[in-house]
Specification:
The chain has 181 residues and is mostly helical. The protein contains seven helices and no strands.
């Protein structure tokens, strides 16, 4: 890959990362603010991510890359898009927990845990309900920046796998360039 192709790929990954971040932030805010249809919107955003990434990379391949996109360039485009989205979403997560939450998320989780029968919880999750309450108590002591870094690391780790899989489907090269380096 030439330097100009690399620069172009990184530039478009920034823009595509904004679109992916908007998708992720929509799901996050529907979940934490308990807006109507929150679980369906979160699930839709989760399923929409690979589809959105595929369509963005396909757009890049067809319009900006001359109809060809190697696996490496596709992976770079997709991973950097997810990395930029992770950073933007982490800012949104930090802003929520730092300025808006004031303990509402933990009390919501606590209320949800208290509403479930102990035996049913243990059979469903394989741990005692008291242990889950202790984990929630430990979560409540985390600072917003700690929660944000945890989210950022998790999303970057997941981005590697999503990017590797979607890049397989979006790559396309001509027969003449297939064996050249």
């Amino acid at each position: 890959m030439t330097f100009s192709k690399y620069e172009q790929t990184i530039a478009y990954s920034r823009v595509f990362g904004l679109y992916v971040a908007l998708c992720w932030l929509t799901g996050f805010f529907f979940f934490v603010l308990r807006l109507p249809l929150d679980s369906m919107v979160c699930f839709a955003c989760f399923l929409l991510t690979p589809i959105l990434l595929f369509n963005l990379a396909k757009y890049f391949r067809e319009t900006k890359s001359g109809g060809e996109l190697t696996y490496g360039q596709a992976f770079l485009l997709l991973f950097m898009s997810c990395a930029h989205a992770s950073l933007l979403t982490a800012v949104g997560v930090w802003a929520y927990f730092n300025f808006l939450d004031s303990g509402a998320f933990v009390s919501l989780m606590e209320t949800s845990l208290n509403a479930i029968d102990s035996e049913l919880f243990e059979s469903a999750y394989g741990m005692p309900k008291s242990e889950a309450m202790q984990m929630l108590s430990a979560f409540s002591e985390l600072r917003p920046i700690d929660i944000t870094f945890g989210y950022l690391l998790d999303s970057l780790f997941a981005s590697v796998f999503i990017s590797a899989i979607v890049a397989l489907f979006v790559k396309k090269s001509s027969g003449a360039n297939r064996y050249e380096r």
